[in-house]
Amino acid sequence: MIRILLLMTPVRGLANWLLCVLLPLLVLSGCAGPRTTPKPTFTTVYIVRHAEKDLAPGLQDPPLTPAGQQRAQALRDTLLRRPVAAIYSTTTLRTQSTAQPLAQARRLTILPYDARQLPQLVRRIRQEKPGQAVLVVGHSNTILETVEALGAPRPVPAVQDNEYDYLLEVRLPQDSTQAVTAVARRYGVSEK
């Protein structure tokens, strides 16, 4: 075909030759269409308890211990590889301090929530961050309840007072006919 086109070039001119060669290439290149990245079909909610807190008696709002500060850094390092678009935390110093390293790294504002109003938190996540990943920082007596409020079964039966290393991952499908799932992982260094 190239030989025929080359023979036709002097007869019909350069314009015809370009049309014969370039038109098929243009048509074929358009067949592939633009490449788009498919949107996730679920929202991912990472849920953690605050990191290790100061257990000194009488503290109204205890800060993190040095081990807790290290765990907060480990949380940041773990979730930096994931596309976390929002961070929700209760208003205690220990939960805010646990979320802070990731919030700074991602340049996100920590959004407050009331752990006694979990249905409101679930509505916010579903409405404000569909198809995205978010972090929720709570307490030992609220993180499994948060999983349940999101519609998934508890991935572990309980969180003990000395367990700070659970990273719960809940997947909320956009399709309401699909089941919400939850898995439990560990992160950071465990003191056990």
Would you write up a description of this structure?
By secondary structure, the chain is of the alpha/beta class. The chain folds into 2 domains: 30 residues, no CATH class; 145 residues, Phosphoglycerate mutase-like (Rossmann fold, 3-Layer(aba) Sandwich). It is 39% helix and 19% strand. The protein contains 6 helices and 6 strands, in the order ααβαβαβαβαββ. It has a 6-stranded mixed beta sheet with strand order 3-2-4-1-5-6, sandwiched between helices. α1 crosses α2 and α3 packs parallel to α4. The protein is globular and about 50 Å long. The protein starts with a helix and ends in a 6-residue tail after the last strand. The N terminus is likely disordered.
| Number of DSSP-assigned strands | 6
- Fraction of residues in H or I helices: 25-40%
Shape: globular
The main sheet comes to: 6 strands, mixed
Q: Enumerate the spans where pLDDT stays under 50 for 5 or more consecutive residues.
A: 1-6
Q: What is the end-to-end distance? A: 75 Å
What is the total domain count? 2
Determine the strand fraction and express it as a percent band. 15-25%
The CATH class of the largest domain turns out to be Alpha Beta
What integer value in Å does the Rg equal? 27 Å
What's the arrangement of secondary structure elements?
Blueprint: H1 2-12, H2 14-31, E1 42-49, H3 66-79, E2 84-89, H4 93-106, E3 110-112, H5 118-128, E4 133-138, H6 143-149, E5 166-173, E6 181-186
Parallel strand pairs: 1-4, 2-3, 2-4
Antiparallel strand pairs: 1-5, 5-6
